[in-house]
Amino acid sequence: MGLGGICLMLQPAFESDRLIETLITLSGGIFTAFALLQVRALSFMGEPAWRIVFYLSAVAAAISAVLATWIGWHSLTVESLPYILGIGGAGLLAQLAMTHAYHVGQKFTVAALSYLTVVFAAIYGAVFAGETIGLLEILGIVAVILAGMVSSLPEKTAQ
Predict the structure, then answer these.
(1) pLDDT digit string, tens, across residues 89-124
(2) Which candidate in 57, 77, 108, 156 could, as Cys together with 151 as Cys, close a disulfide (CB 3.0–4.6 Å)?
(3) How far is CA 135 from the centre of its chain?
(4) Do 106 and 151 contact (CB within 8 A), yes or no?
């Protein structure tokens, strides 16, 4: 339900000239889901959150370095350094929190609630950037919120 809500909000353009980009983005979402399930499995095997996040960051940095070498590097400026450090620090704390959440929480609840980032981005865009939210986006927001609520209900056990 949550993924359906995201699709309603983002309205992937399968008919447009952006088909490859759309498929790459949707594939990224699927691979992220697999990666988060592996994070959960690693945390249950006793791996500390900091170690999981360290290796995730190291692999991401290596892949990013290869892509940047292929596409082209950009030089850093002194003015951009506080922003880069702020984004990096916030990303580190968020990844540590997400890894911990997958360890202690119900995996489907955590996954459904992680879709709220897109909801918050849409609301942020409407409030601060003057973007409009249409009927499909509102239905998507409702679907994401309902998915989080439904996934947090306790499971009934068979007797």
Answers:
(1) 999 998 898 888 877 877 777 777 777 888 898 899
(2) 108
(3) 23
(4) yes
